Sequence to fold (191 residues):
Amino acid sequence: MNDPLPNGGLIRKLWPGEAEAYRDHLLRLDPESRNRRFSGAVADEVIIRHASTAGAPGVVIHGFFVDGTLRGAAELRRIGPLFSHEGEAALSIERAWQSHGVGTGLLERTLLSARNRGITSLHMHCLADNHRMQQLAKKFEAGLSFDFGSVVGAVDPPRSTGLSLMREAMADSHGMAAAIFEAQSRLFKTA
Ligand SMILES: CC(C)(COP(=O)(O)OP(=O)(O)OC[C@H]1O[C@@H](n2cnc3c(N)ncnc32)[C@H](O)[C@@H]1OP(=O)(O)O)[C@@H](O)C(=O)NCCC(=O)NCCS
Fold:
C-alpha cells in the first residue's frame, strides 16, 4: 500500500461530487484501454451514463491522482441487494501511467474495501488476451481463478477483521491529508 507511485501521484477514494472527474478519466482512455476496460467497444454516451452512477450506493471507487487529475481508477460494485456478498471490480489506467505499479496499488485498496464490506466473491471481467490484468490479479492470488474463454476471474477476499477495517480507515485519512497537502502545494506553485 505504500509503494511509491509514479509522478508523485496519490491513491485515494473518490469523494461525492467527483463523478465528472471519473467521466473525464474514462473518456481520456485510448481506444485499446477503453476496449479492455469495458470488454468491448463502447460509445462515449455509455461511458457518460456509467460514470454518472459513481456515487450510487454499493459503489466504491479508488482513484490515482497526479497533480489533481484522475489518471487511474478501480471501481468496486456490489452485485445484487445491499448486503449481497458478490461484487465486481474494474480497473482503468491511462496509458502513460500503465505498467508503473498503479494497478497493483489500486487493486490492493479495492480488495481491502471489498473485504471490509463483506464481499466474498469478486468478479473481474477481462478479455482473454489481457495478460497484464491477469498477471496483476495473480499477484493477489487468494482464491483466484480465471476462465480464459469468456473472461471471468473471481477472487475471494478474506473476511474483514478489526485490523483490515483500521487499515482502510487509515488509508482514507492518509488520502484526505495528502489531497489537501497536494492542493495547497499547487496553490503555492501558481501564486
Ligand atoms: C490492466 C491494468 C489495470 C494494469 O495496471 P498497471 O498499472 O498497468 O499494472 P502494474 O504496473 O501494477 O503491473 C501489474 C503486473 O502486470 C504485469 N505487467 C506490467 N506491465 C506489463 C506489460 N507491459 N506486459 C505484460 N505484463 C505486464 C506484471 O506482472 C506486473 O506485476 P509486477 O510489476 O509486480 O511484475 C492497466 O494496464 C489498464 O488500465 N489497462 C487498460 C484497461 C484494462 O485492461 N482494464 C482491465 C479490465 S478490468
